Amino acid sequence: MNPQSHSAALRGPRPQFAFGDGGGANRLARTLLALGLAALLCLPACSFTPDEAESASSRNTPAAEATSHLTFRTDEKLQQHFEKHGWETGCATTEEYLAAANAVIADPASLHKLQAEDGDDLYFLERTGEFVVVSPAGYIRTYYLTDRDYFDRQ
Q1: 111-148 tens-digit pLDDT
Q2: Among residues 39, 54, 106, 143, which is most buried (max CB within 10 A)?
């Protein structure tokens, strides 16, 4: 056995993904992307001091830009929304759900608008139908799937 075939035998077969099915593989790819983006967004926060956080929020920037990793107001609210919408977004855990919502907010392809009624920031990723609402205080209110008409009516 030559060295190349020996190392290939040790690694085992490569996993195969059927991207054409539109189901689990796309959810897996989206989840992996969301987790990676969330990890990248968290890096700058590691060296953030409270004084820097105050100055960032006082610059009159949208909540998503002032905070590198948004959360729900409480763990209970995160859990409630995950139980209601986690299955439809393809998320298996609250951590995946939160990372996926943050990935939509950070995605430059996401449509964004300010809801005049209560000042919420609305994000919609048209290619996936993902919709995120962020409160003026910088907390995620919800994350779920919908369509462009719904986003436009908000």
Answers
A1: 999 998 899 999 999 999 999 999 999 999 999 999 99
A2: 143
Burial of 139 per CB tally in 10 Å (0-12, 13-18, 19+): middle
Beta bridge partners of 130: 125, 145
Spatial separation of the C-alpha atoms in residues 11 and 94, rounded to whole Å: 32
Q: What is the value of pTM for the model shown?
A: 0.57
Beta strand residue intervals within 49-151, DSSP E: 111-114, 121-125, 130-134, 140-145
**Helix (H/G/I), strand (E/B), else coil: 127:** coil
CA-CA distance, 130 to 88, in Å (whole number)? Answer: 10
Specify the length of the chain in residues: 154
Contact 96, 85 (CB under 8 A): no
